[in-house]
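This part of the workshop introduces the protein records we will be handling. Each record describes a single protein and holds just a pair of labelled lines. Instead of coordinates, the fold is spelled out as a row of discrete tokens. To make this concrete, we reproduce a full record directly below:
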Amino acid sequence: MYIHSEILFILGNKCFDNNELNITKCNNITQTPNHMLRRFARANSTPHYRIDLHSETGRFDLITLATEEIPTTIPRPPTFIKPHAEYQYLNLIHDILQERQEYIGRNGNTLSVFGAGMVFSLEQGWIPILTTKKMAWKTCLKELLWFIQGKTDNRILQDQNVHIWDDNASPDFMESRGLSHYAEGDLGPIYGFQWRHFNAEYTGHTTDYTGKGVDQLAEIIRCLKHPTERFSRRLIMTAWNPCQLDEMALPPCHILCQFNVDSMNRLSCALYQRSGDVGLGVPFNIASYSFLTHLLAKHCGLVTHEFVYYLGNAHIYDDHLDVMKTQLLRQPFPFPRVEISVLRDDINDYTVDDFRVLNYQSYDAIPMKMRK
């Protein structure tokens, strides 16, 4: 059950009589199927689960609030859970565990759901870097700046102690993709290449692609700086290029983002991601596109508003299940803020040192192995 203003959402499929609810100040009652909860992102910032300690076994039991019996009177909760946007992510973990849709995929067994959404405020410098586990936000930011520069050489990341692409750049994986002829570290025309040189002929990571292909990011920046074109509904950047998927070390997971400026010059970003590794990839993607939105707002003289996140296939790998259950035991800390200390002339010239993340408090990291 979730109460928002004067609207009562009953989460679950139990039939009920209005008189049973004993509620006098609610004008609108809406009941949803259990699986629909994850689609109501803006009404999803409180947990729809609880963790109980079993008195006999000493184990923690996961209780799904949406499927509990609705009492004849609505009791006062024993403790007040303060709404927090991170519960959108935690609720997604819970929903996947609860629905238990098992799949055998390209790289192993998963529990998956199809279709999920989250909305995070970016106002006043807020940035949704998850707090229920420690996030390597500098690693995330270094990868983003590498994308922005249109780079495809994994060795550039390795030189900055970033190793998130190492498995997908390994000789055995590149051979499995039919790309063993690429030079060491060459990942092909992946994200950054498509952002800056969409559909240019790819001839290797050492080629100078200046002026080749479509520079989608430069066009978005041009529009965002224009007094009227910033309101365009065509501010779209895509990494999904069917013509070059077979040339990429890994086809893109986060495939399309759209930027929107409202009447108060507030910049928002909406991302569609076809496939999301909820344990490892999704937290990085949330932080990365939020960093990108803050950077573009700074660079183009706007203020930030929201990051809107849509997921297609959201999945948890079978070897991540147990450790992710422990994450549900943790109550989120306040999100940190980000400051960008300098306004540079060229979007390519920003560095990690230009960013400050303030008051980031988190639980310990949760080690998980990435699947290739």
Q: What stands out?
A: The two ends are 39 Å apart (CA to CA). The chain has two domains: 2-67, 107-358. The domain at 107-358 is CATH 3.30.572.10 (Thymidylate Synthase; Chain A).
